[in-house]
Automatic annotation (TrEMBL):
<dbReference type="InterPro" id="IPR036909">
    <property type="entry name" value="Cyt_c-like_dom_sf"/>
</dbReference>
<dbReference type="InterPro" id="IPR055557">
    <property type="entry name" value="DUF7133"/>
</dbReference>
<dbReference type="GO" id="GO:0009055">
    <property type="term" value="F:electron transfer activity"/>
</dbReference>
<feature type="domain" description="Cytochrome c">
    <location>
        <begin position="666"/>
        <end position="803"/>
    </location>
</feature>
<dbReference type="InterPro" id="IPR016024">
    <property type="entry name" value="ARM-type_fold"/>
</dbReference>
<dbReference type="InterPro" id="IPR013428">
    <property type="entry name" value="Membrane-bound_put_N"/>
</dbReference>
<keyword id="KW-0349">Heme</keyword>
<protein>
    <submittedName>
        <fullName>HEAT repeat protein</fullName>
    </submittedName>
</protein>
<keyword id="KW-0479">Metal-binding</keyword>
<dbReference type="InterPro" id="IPR013427">
    <property type="entry name" value="Haem-bd_dom_put"/>
</dbReference>
<dbReference type="InterPro" id="IPR011041">
    <property type="entry name" value="Quinoprot_gluc/sorb_DH_b-prop"/>
</dbReference>
<dbReference type="Pfam" id="PF23500">
    <property type="entry name" value="DUF7133"/>
</dbReference>
<dbReference type="InterPro" id="IPR011989">
    <property type="entry name" value="ARM-like"/>
</dbReference>
<dbReference type="GO" id="GO:0046872">
    <property type="term" value="F:metal ion binding"/>
</dbReference>
<dbReference type="GO" id="GO:0020037">
    <property type="term" value="F:heme binding"/>
</dbReference>
<keyword id="KW-0408">Iron</keyword>
<dbReference type="Pfam" id="PF13646">
    <property type="entry name" value="HEAT_2"/>
</dbReference>
Length: 803
């Protein structure tokens, strides 16, 4: 079976996979039941494409949903109400920012399953000439895309599969081309558009050109769908937050890489409003631009050095009622997807169960995204072997390995009838019938009903619909009432305070929490009554409700209220601290609300409290208020994009293979001794466990993420690729001195460069003339030459055991 492609408009490239009458039976052969530990023998079909060898638990089946030539190097995806899949994809090239902006080689595709068999068979280029798109979201008729440097809103007016309008909603995000920048977008419960931004720095301006936000930290940002009201939700020194999901109660969970550096930790995080997170080595610098409420907030789970990426929360019950709420996390380096079950722990979560779900024996299978389809199946996006910049596993770029998209089904699961509601006459539905669909068991139908209700609420019939919702409130389940509150939270909807008061006073903790969450920045006509109930919720039996009540109070323009109201709110916040001293997230929310309130006199009273927790919180809040109002804007020390190294040539790759094939059997014990011996000098820069240096990547689990060929290539050609966080820089001082090394940290006064295990240098910022990225690794270029074949084999044998 071959694909034919043609261009119909000069900009519309369409690819069809011809389907024979027996197509259904052909693809039925690809539906395989797989037992853990046995490779999934998915057979090659189109062209030379060979599916990755995959295993899944007993009771799950794997299908191919899209493969070359229909797709190549897909990254992230999103589905629209018709079931069309939008895919942020690349040309398979590793390019720095100047080259990306000059060539604009990447794009967004739209894939369609024309015959409904679960296999996509038509593709159009929805938006070409993109920098580096890393995610997308369909919302109310448009596609929101985070592409390096900016957030875009793309709209296809005539539904021909090509975006007719491109609106740049927010820009000013720095990037270098290593994928550690903007990712998204994601829809928040209150209708805001969220995205992640890596630690490359940003400078955001309003329509008048005034800077509204500037800094070097990583952030979780959000804005309204029109790009207005940009704000940061959480921030820190982590390298690269990637994806986020929301729970039915409004909690935000996300994946983040390099939250810790020595040893590296890639994590699952419960992001908090105003939260500041590690890395510790950048914490002192970030103090100069961020508001702290005490210790840095921490993760829900640390996966280790694995490179997490896509994240999905299962919403349907197709995999069984016990699966609803499970998380699927893609792991780039170890070629798998893990399944995570969480359980409450105070006002946050902890891992209850964690297991491998989908695993490949191929090191060229790199899952980057996972998303649930309307029928309960799960789509897995494998980007292939092209990515190399800053990736410790991909020493050699393999752009000829194009990746694919797979579908996972639970065998025996009952497929819901019309899972997308395609047979529903949506325009003919009156308000009550449309509202009834908010309680539908089909998640995609609920999403579609919510979008249509949102459109009506901001239109001419909005006021009447809002009154209908209030009248029907008591007849709804808690789940539907949470969805009512989400609609009421939309900034342009005409809701009275009554629906929020009903939510705040509800008997169900999840409804109370969602009511607090939806009041972050929603104005109402009766703020006194709202604030009175929020204050009451500070004593709620649920710690999560207490946390969200404090966050809502802090954001509801406390400073604009009367002096008496402000004092009462601050006194209540202070009084709530002793009962919440053991819950870091509630404590954080209370202190951040005090900072937002800005009431120095009332907060100062807390310094005289008999409770240590109150005195500490008051002192922190007062100090942060001072910094918030008096901190001068400092020029940022901007680091240039690091050198990314030149990919190995064919001749160099042949050298690696020839040396590898000529190596004898290695002996791991001898390899361990050699690692710590002066001859190899490996431990001078690299750490395994608690022993060794810290100016090179931690190798404690290197055997999980690299094969022998990649390890040998990094020894023979260390400057071909730099592990993320270990790029080399040369610093030139105003006196003409030059120092080269890796950046260990900075504190606003000086930077620290690591030269080797025993030597680091601190250079005052005011003495720096320029910082130049170095194309050369600080790792000696002749390590492999200094070792005999037997020594090299021994060293590789030991390193490959480090898992």
């Amino acid at each position: 079976m071959t694909a034919s492609c043609h261009s119909t408009t000069g900009r519309l490239a369409t690819c069809f996979l011809p389907m024979a009458p027996h197509t259904a039976s052909v693809f039925a052969l690809l539906l395989l039941l797989v037992t853990r530990g046995e490779p999934a023998p998915l057979q090659a079909a189109e062209g030379d494409f060979t599916p990755a060898p995959l295993t899944a638990p007993v009771g799950y089946a794997i299908e191919r949903a899209a493969s070359p030539p229909l797709v190549a190097h897909p990254l992230m995806g999103a589905l629209d109400p018709q079931g069309r899949l939008y895919v942020a994809a690349t040309a398979g090239e590793n390019l720095r920012r100047p080259d990306l902006e000059e060539q604009l080689p990447n794009f967004v595709q739209r894939l369609e399953d024309v015959d409904g068999d679960g296999v996509f068979d038509k593709a159009t280029i929805f938006a070409d000439k993109m920098t580096f798109p890393q995610g997308c979201l369909w919302y109310r008729g448009s596609l929101y895309v985070a592409s390096s440097g900016a957030i875009w809103k793309l709209t296809d007016d005539d539904d021909d599969g090509v975006a007719d309008r491109r609106e740049k909603l927010v820009d000013g995000f720095n990037y270098g081309g290593n994928a550690a920048d903007v990712h998204g977008c994601f829809l928040g419960p209150e209708g805001r558009i969220y995205w992640c931004d890596g630690r490359w720095g940003h400078e955001l301006k309003d329509d008048q050109g005034q800077i509204v936000s500037q800094g070097k930290a990583a952030h979780i940002f959000s804005c309204r769908p029109d790009g207005s009201h940009v704000r940061s939700h959480a921030t820190g020194g982590m390298d690269n937050p990637v994806e986020i999901v929301f729970t039915p109660t409004g909690d935000m969970l996300g994946t983040v890489n390099l939250m810790y550096s020595q040893p590296r930790g890639d994590c699952l995080v419960h992001w908090q409003y105003g939260g500041v997170y590690p890395r510790e080595d950048f914490a002192s610098t970030l103090d100069s631009e961020l508001l702290r409420t005490g210790d840095l907030l921490t993760e829900v789970h640390n996966f280790g050095h694995v490179a997490v990426s896509g994240l999905c929360r299962l919403e349907s019950n197709s995999w069984g009622p016990g699966a609803v709420g499970d998380l699927l996390v893609t792991v780039f380096n170890t070629n798998r997807i893990v399944r995570v079950k969480l359980k409450p722990a105070g006002s946050t979560y902890q891992v209850d169960q964690l297991e491998d779900f989908l695993v490949s024996s191929s090191r060229d299978f790199h899952p980057t995204d996972v998303l649930e389809d309307a029928d309960g199946s799960v789509l897995v996006i494998d980007t292939g072997g092209w990515f190399r910049i800053g990736c410790p596993q991909s020493q050699i770029a393999k752009s000829d390995i194009h990746g694919a998209i797979y579908r996972i089904r639970k065998t025996g699961a009952v497929r819901p009838a019309d899972p997308r509601g395609l047979t529903i006459d949506w325009p003919a539905l009156d308000d009550q019938r449309l509202l009834a669909l908010l309680g539908d068991e089909r998640p995609a139908v609920v999403v579609r009903a919510r979008e249509r209700l949102a459109d009506r609420l901001v239109g001419k019939v909005g006021a009447g619909l809002a009154k209908t919702m209030l009248a029907l409130w008591d007849q709804q389940s808690p789940a539907v009432q949470q969805r009512y509150l989400q609609l009421a939270a939309l900034p342009e909807t005409p809701f009275s305070a009554a629906i929020f008061l009903a939510g705040l006073g509800h008997s169900n903790a999840g409804v109370r929490q969602m009511a607090c969450r939806c009041l972050y920045d929603k104005g109402t006509e009766d703020p006194q009554a709202i604030n009175a109930l929020l204050i009451e919720r500070l004593k709620d039996a649920s710690p999560a409700v207490r946390r969200e009540a404090a966050a809502a109070l802090g954001q509801r323009t406390i400073g604009e209220k009367s002096p008496v109201e402000r004092r009462e709110i601050v006194e209540t916040l202070l009084a709530a601290l002793p009962a919440n001293v053991d819950d870091p997230l509630v404590r954080h929310a209370l202190v951040y609300a005090l900072i937002d309130a800005g009431e120095r006199e009332a907060t100062s009273a807390g310094l005289l409290s008999p409770h240590q927790a109150v005195r500490t919180a008051a002192a922190i809040a007062l100090e942060q208020m001072r910094q918030k109002t008096s901190r001068p804007d400092k020029p940022l020390l901007k680091f240039p994009a690091p050198a990314i190294g030149a990919p190995l040539t064919e001749a160099e790759q042949n050298q690696v293979l020839q040396r590898l094939e000529g190596l004898p059997q290695g002996e791991a014990d001898r390899g361990k001794a050699l690692f710590y011996h002066e001859k190899s000098a490996c431990s001078k820069c690299h750490r395994v466990g608690s022993q060794g240096g810290q100016v090179g990547p931690d190798l404690t689990t290197i055997g999980r993420i690299r094969g022998g060929q990649d390890l040998l290539a990094s020894m023979m050609f260390p400057s071909a690729s730099f592990a993320r966080g270990f790029e080399s820089y040369t610093v030139e001082t105003v006196q003409g001195q030059r120092k080269s090394g890796i950046l260990l940290g900075e504190n606003g006064r000086e930077i620290r460069l690591g030269l080797d295990k025993d030597h680091a240098v601190a250079i005052p910022i005011d003495q720096i003339d320029q910082i130049v990225p170095s194309p050369l690794s600080i790792m000696p270029p002749d390590v492999a030459k200094q070792l005999s074949d037997q020594e090299l084999a021994d060293l590789l044998a030991w390193l490959l055991l480090q898992k």
